[in-house]
Amino acid sequence: MKATPETLNPEQTAFLVRQRVARLATADAAGVPHAIPVCFAYLPGAIYIALDEKPKDVPPTRLKRVRNILENPNAAFVADRYAEDWSLLAFVMVRGHAELLEPGTPEHADAVRLLRGKYHQYEEMGIEENPIIAVRPQKVASWGALEAPDGDEPIVLDTIRGRRSVRRYLPKEVPEKLVDGVLEAGRWAPSPHGRQPWRFAVITEEETKERLAGAMGEEWRANLQMDGQSPGVVEKRLEGSRQRLLDAPVLVLLCLYLEDLDVYPDADRQQGEITMAVQSLGAAAQNVLLAAYDLGLDAGWMCAPLFCPEKVVEALGLDPKLIPHALLTLGYAEGDPPKRRGRKSLDELIVYRD
Ligand SMILES: Cc1cc2nc3c(=O)[nH]c(=O)nc-3n(C[C@H](O)[C@H](O)[C@H](O)COP(=O)(O)O)c2cc1C
To answer: Most exposed residue of 29, 40, 216, 299, measured as fewest CB within 10 angstroms of its CB?
Structure first.
């Protein structure tokens, strides 16, 4: 076991900040120990632990851990990884002084922000009303495979490779709970300044799908005619697209929402801001597609709304500030998709490496 005084080294830090649960040990004046699992956030110099509103028998200040800290500031904190493959076992143990940060102090406010950033559950809890425990590291020890588990491929790659665009679905309903699970993944996409410049419209009603297909079809008919397609081809393609919308059990329309973005005096930066929002919408779409696949659903992507956003807004009665971009279909695949596009090799895609 390796002991480092006071500060966590980069490996220990990297390990600690990836853990979502740890154990906090305190002791009373007589040295009687007490250990509990805790959620925590770390910044160099302190580990922060909230006294949250989870049902407890006593008010936060009467909690055993709080009484112990008031009597005896010595605390130990351990975050560990367990795996059946014991070559992956690891832990970081921090010993130090625990103190209570009172509401109203700048460090308390920073700790609340940090904890809410790490655990979305805290957004709904009044943790700002209670003291926050701060453990100031004095001795740090660690053991085992602190670095990320070895392996050539991330586990999520199975989902990424398995996902494919599906264009024909079984007539089988998708439970609303699954749709919510899929959208929850969209919610966590990265976005410029964290502004989340996208909104979802969920469509399952036959009548609404018809209205949407009709509105988008009108525009497409005009475009295909402009391209010089024969009337027979135009009607066949329109009917195929209409049927695709009607047959998909759920349609998720991803709309761009630019109202919360930064405003710049020059056109170049403004365009950059909009491009970032579109990139972020793409990330949200990918999250949705991957989550759908992970939940046993299939999904497809239709770009049609991008070419007639106003018509889509009108057909669905949406807020005109929304800009429809992508239509994702959700359901259960009728069979394996007939064709799957190949992928370029990594050698072709990596154009520079130093
Ligand atoms: C921005 C974008 C727009 C797309 N639009 C359509 C579309 O309108 N119709 C369609 O059938 N597929 C559409 N796709 C799906 C692609 O055709 C599909 O992702 C690609 O062929 C690779 O196949 P895979 O998704 O099965 O790996 C779109 C994909 C993206 C990223």
So the answer is: 29
